């Protein structure tokens, strides 16, 4: 089995978060606040919150910070965040999806639109590019030479995974989004160390940029969106995104 490698994107995200820990705390705090409002503050019964706590620990968020985030989200003056998804096009028609968590939708919409306009793109209507992406759970395990690939693939598929791929650096296991946590827990119980386990949006096709100005603008669009406090994740179908 094979699938498009997401390790470069995941690694890039980790490098960004390592360099910007304060922003990571802010963004995951918003995710937790939304999860708590929807399902309560007890991670034993709120699966989404439990997953976010595990994600926070994986990003080296200290336990004291996690506790403060939960306490703040359950306080009387907690901010009322909502999730809003924006879709649009970057330079040369690159499909872009931006997920946000905001307490001021007018501010966020204005800022996101400004970035698209400034860097050669345009914000579109809901659904204009999302049909080009498939929601998928991606589990990454480091390929350090000590793991039996056939056994891992067998264990992953038995746990409910939908696809499996391997390269020199990592094993990547794909799942339905609803099965991500169950497959992750099953693999951990089997003794595997998980590098990351996240929901992703996988494009059905990719676009390569060749014009240097378009490449520069696309990098600036992504950079400015990533640096915005309200932006949680960015998905796109730019093939040569490492340039």
Pick out its properties:
243 residues, 44% helix, four-stranded antiparallel beta sheet, single chain, alpha+beta, 8 helices
Report on the structure:
This protein has 243 residues and is an alpha+beta fold. The chain contains 8 helices and 8 strands, in the order H-H-H-H-E-E-H-E-E-H-E-E-H-E-H-E. The strands form 2 sheets. The chain has a 4-stranded antiparallel β-sheet. Strands 5-6-4-7 form a 4-stranded antiparallel β-sheet, with helices on one face. Helix 2 (21-39) crosses helix 4 (63-73). It is globular and about 50 Å long.
Task: Describe the global form.
Answer: globular
> How large is the count of helical segments?
8
What is the number of beta strands? 8
Biggest β-sheet description: 4 strands, antiparallel
Major sheet: order of its strands? 3-1-2-8
Structural class: alpha+beta
Strand content: 15-25%
Overall pLDDT level: 88
Distance between the first and last residues' Cα: 28 Å
What is the CA-based Rg, rounded?
A: 18 Å
Summarize the structure.
The longest helix is centred in the first third of the chain and has 19 residues, at 21-39. Helix content is 44%, strand content 21%.
